[in-house]
Amino acid sequence: MTSSTYRSPVNDDPTLDISLVVNGRPVEASVSPRLLLSDFLRHHLGLTGTHVGCEHGVCGACTVHIDGRAARSCLTLAVQLDGATVRTVEDLEGPDGSLSPVQEAFRDCHGLQCGFCTPGFLMSVTALLDEDPDVADASDTEIRERIAGNLCRCTGYQGIVAATRQAAETIRDAKEQADVPTRG
Amino acid sequence: MSRREAEQPEQADNAPPMVHTGARVRRNEDPRLLRGQGRYVDDIPLEGCVHGAFLRSTIARGRIVALDTTDAERVPGVLAVYTCDNIGGLDREMPLLIPHPCITHGRTQRPLARDDVYYVGQAIAFVVAVDRYVAEDAVSRISVDIEPLPVEVDMERAVEDGAPLVHPDVPGNIAASLVQHCGDADAAFERAEHHTKIRVQVDRSTGAPMECLATAARWDPVSGELVVWDGTQAPIGLRGALSSLFDLDEDKVRVIAPDVGGGFGPKIHFPYANEVLVPLAAMQLGRPVKYIEDRSENFVHMSHERTQIHEIELAATKDGEVIGLRDVFLHDTGSFIPYGIAVAQVASTAIAGPYRIPNIEVEFRCVYTPTVPVTPYRGCGRPQANFALERAMDQLAEELGIDRFEIRRRNLIADDEFPYKREGLIFADGLPVTYDSGQYGAALALLEKELDLPAFRAEQERARAEGRWLGLGLSFYVEGTGLGPYEGGRVRIHPITGKVYVNTGLTTQGQGHATSMAQLVADQLGVAVDDVIVVEGDTGVYDWGVATFASRAMVVSGSAIHKAAVKARERVLEIAANMLEVDPADIELKDGAAGVRGTATTIPLAAIATVSNPLRYAFNDAAQIATQFAPASKGDGPPLQGDSRPGIETEQFYSPPHATWAYGVHAAIVEVDPVSYDLQVKRYVIVHDCGKMINPMIVEGQIAGGVASGMGGAFYEKLEYEANGNLRNASFMEFLMPYATEVPHMEMHHLETPTPLNPIGAKGAGEAGTIPVAAVIASGIQDALAPEGIGPLWHVPLNPSVLHDAVREARSR
Ligand code: FES
Ligand code: FES
């Protein structure tokens, strides 16, 4: 259990207590009401994989999962997270340190260049595939629409579209394989 | 995906097989970035770090009549408030980085405004506080009173008599002007059977890297060293600037560009205000200081580019042979000209594109406007020149009744005309434009084939019959890449692990140097690509070189690294031959070891590196073999003889004789919706030639990213200045950067015509994708809307309302 007080360094600033789960670990904190979730994750918990590209909710670089759904951490205050479960890019790899199917696909398809938008994309695509495994059958146009909440200035999206499809296929194939014995 | 090979550059006798070079190798840098373990400036953990925030001008041109920081200083948690009055020697105009004799009125800005402000966003004060929230609170408590002065943001009006001046002592707002001649344009225009003249305009945009500017600094009072982490494309240059400004020995200033979240040009400019004030504060306060620019600041602080207005005229024969070109253009440099005439110069020298056009006269003026300063952004003047030339070629084709492909074919430089020199046009490297190699005709033919023109024409006819607006656009571009002066490469084999360490003076902002440079070395030394560790962007590690710009990394650093790897290979072969007592020609380097061909005998590279370093101490088992009394060390004379050095470490430099010219031709099939006037790109086809590709996957990524920026510039992205100099759309909500839905799928085809100018045959690829897109899209929409008889589309970015107005206007005629 991580437990500490993240108090604004300016003494008379009030704080609120929150307790939440971040990447599977319980966290208790006492935070300033105006602290953004993105800053809380990055600067107080040291989870710097979550990036900030605009701080006005447009670019998606700061995307994390809150209670299983993709959300923009730059538009969320840390104090809103009391009782919530948060997942960040640092939690995507498997327990053995292997890349997740989405991460692997981004690597295979050159879905990243500078890597700054990448954690946000990984979290968005992971949430998308959790919700809708049929993306593997979607048209390119549909995939583009489904990932159009994140900006990337480097890749021209071509590799990201391909990676999304590859990850969807990998996940679906793995599911089908897992289902075979029970069907039999 | 097709790929046509031209012949390879000649291989030396004992050259190794190219296993990795040219292959689609997955990137070494990815696993770290995918795990969220990237290290961008704001991720560097600095104990006790404090944070900076700027007060910025909300007035374009004005006089500061009062500035009071007292309230801000009283905010609990504030450590310092800087204005021009308490920054000592930093209160001076920053350097003009690329001087040129034609800059008659060069002006650069101060880190913090003194007396006057020149654009909305200019830094006036810098607050350092315990965290960013407090620093921003304090900024809001600074009171500043600025008396507005008259402004003119429209470049054409800014050069007229009586226009308000940005700098009172710069007449006509003209910073620089230049005329260049190649051949005899007057005579060509005299003799021509046909003249075509058009006026084109490209509007202002911004590089918009996903990571904004960022600087952190730590001063170590014990070692007297200043360490600066900065999201820059030019750490060595910035180190030079900081050493000079702070009067510190170069060895006491270390600039590190860690992971950088995109560059695209604006981060080549230095020093921005944060790049000097953060180090100043760190030294004065004795604590690490950080400044992370936010997106709204980035729009009004980081350099912009693109605004140019060209009047271009072609002189042609009736058959469409273009014999002369005149171009006169205005280039908006914003309120200052810190990077010199680079953008205008590149535009002016790219103006004749891939065509023979032997007679050229090109003239430009760089104009001050009270806006964010302009320095290169991906393309650097080439997109504007390409837009001017290619729209003019389309117009000429139309006027002469010649097909758009055919008129280009008639003017392309032929394969046997290379090297093709444009005497009198001086490129950004200070040398005459000389195209080194290419297969322009083959590129156009390949594009036509891939497009299947007959099928398209039939489809277009059907579409038109149904009242649909379907069109085809194309544009052919050239790109001078790989400018000097030079870069270096150092290769070292690590004696403990046998891994290969490579250094160069560049930075990477996503271009994959850690992979592509490693591929070159891996082939020479017979090691796995992921056993080659490329470290760059840190002046503490390697500080010979220039920077990452002008699509030059692979050309210049790649060549230097290749040369160093060849030398390292020679040294390995020599030592291995000694150890194995065979001829070096019988040795092959493979799987991290040297082996005798046809036998099972091998020695690992680590052992070779160990032996090459005479030792006294056997600090591990392997080291025993290099100590004084070991049999391998027996010999006459001192262990290091002549000029030899210990270990396997080589360093080489590459200095290009002149730029190498990549090129390509793009086409798009577009459809405009007759109700919404939305643009749909149905096919986007690219033929591209950047010489020898070291990693085609990375090249294609560069092209794709470039096209995406180009799509922005063609149809979406425009910085909109209001008449009073306020930037109306300084956020991603209103500046429409393309999402995946606005960027088409790209079909890419490669030619590989090696350049004879460097040992790896490579030309640059970083900016290529961006250059032709605006012309492609405008040409395609023009074709789509031809049945409506709309006027010419000579101004980008286009958008649905422009198209709607154009159709309305045509219908009301
Ligand atoms: S940083 Fe949160 S959406 Fe851009
Ligand atoms: S990889 Fe650089 S912004 Fe997407």
Give keywords:
heterodimer, A: alpha/beta, Ubiquitin-like (UB roll), 6-stranded mixed beta sheet, about 15% strand, globular, disordered N terminus, B: about 800 residues, alpha+beta, Aldehyde Oxidoreductase, domain 4, Aldehyde Oxidoreductase, domain 3, 3 domains, 32 strands, binds FE2/S2 (inorganic) cluster
Structure in a nutshell:
The complex is a heterodimer of chains A (184) and B (813). Chain A has 184 residues and is an alpha/beta fold.
Can you give the helix content of chain B as a percent range?
25-40%
What is the overall number of helices of chain B? Answer: 19
CATH class of the largest domain in chain A: Alpha Beta
Mean pLDDT of chain B: 95
Shape of chain A: globular
Low-confidence stretches of chain A: 1-8
Strand content of chain A: 5-15%
Rg calculated over all Cα atoms of chain A = 18 Å
The appropriate CATH architecture of the largest domain in chain B is 2-Layer Sandwich
- Strand neighbour order, sheet with most strands of chain B: 4-6-2-14-11-12-13
Please give the radius of gyration of chain B in angstroms: 28 Å
Give the low-pLDDT segments of chain B.
1-11
Report helical residue fraction of chain A: 25-40%
The structure class of chain B reads: alpha+beta
Largest sheet of chain A: 6 strands, mixed
The amount of beta strand of chain B, in percent, is 25-35%
